[in-house]
Amino acid sequence: MEIKLKTPIDDKSRQSLSAGQEVLISGIIYTGRDAAHKRLVDAIKDKKPLPFDIKDQIIYYVGPTPAKPGQIIGACGPTSSYRMDQYSPLLMEKGLKIMIGKGPRSDAFKEELIKHKAIYLLAIGGLGAKLSQTVKENTVIAYDDLGTEAIRKLRVEDFPAIVAIDSSGNAII
């Protein structure tokens, strides 16, 4: 049975999720891949403001394809998450609570996840066209020079994911 979640997801709801549970997310999520993560971390280190308030937010590791005429977004399947492991600890320290991607994460990432009571969700790879149908609004909010890897603010309805690592460190991957 899928659990419906509305963003922002509060601590109690997030921490009640268990590895292996299926969720449907509605509300705002942000996108970001390697280059955007590096810029976010550099901004934090340089004591510059971030392009959005990262506290209690969700970042989806995706670089969507360009939208065809009449579409809100192109295919938006997840990218491999391990590339964000080096950036994730500082982002979690600043309040990031949920990350969505695909594939395994490092042991160091898992330790940070537990420390910050955050969670890692899996989106199903290969379903980019289907996942794009859950996107109702798509706005580039930062780093537009990165093209499809710019940070976007997406409004989604019933975006499907699976809890891969819960806030206690229990994992299905």
Q: How would you explain this protein's 3D organization?
A:
- The protein is α/β, with parallel strands linked by helices.
- The protein has a single domain, classed as fumarase, CATH 3.20.130.10.
- The chain has 5 helices and 7 strands; from the N terminus they run E-H-E-H-E-H-E-H-E-H-E-E.
- It has helices at 11-15, 34-45, 88-93, 107-115, 128-132, and strands at residues 3-6, 22-31, 58-60, 98-101, 119-122, 135-142, 151-165.
- The chain has a 5-stranded mixed beta barrel.
- The protein is globular, with a radius of gyration of 15 Å.
- The mean pLDDT is 97.
How do the strands and helices of this protein lay out in sequence?
Layout: E1 3-6, H1 11-15, E2 22-31, H2 34-45, E3 58-60, H3 88-93, E4 98-101, H4 107-115, E5 119-122, H5 128-132, E6 135-142, E7 151-165
Parallel strand pairs: 1-2, 2-3, 3-4, 4-5
Antiparallel strand pairs: 2-7, 5-7, 6-7
Features:
5 helices; alpha/beta; 173 residues; 28% strand
Question: Could you name the CATH class?
Answer: Alpha Beta
What is the terminal-to-terminal distance? 20 Å
- What is the H/E order? EHEHEHEHEHEE
By CATH's scheme, which homologous superfamily applies?
A: Fe-S hydro-lyase, tartrate dehydratase beta-type, catalytic domain
Q: What is the topology, as strand order, of the major beta sheet?
A: 2-3-4-5-7
Number of domains: 1
Helix content: 10-25%
Count of distinct strands: 7
How many DSSP helices?
5
* Apparent shape: globular
Query: Major beta sheet, specifics?
Result: 5 strands, mixed, barrel
- What number is the mean pLDDT? 97
CATH architecture: Alpha-Beta Barrel
Detail the poorly predicted runs.
none
How much of the residues is beta strand, in percent? 25-35%
What's the alpha carbon Rg, rounded to whole Å?
Answer: 15 Å
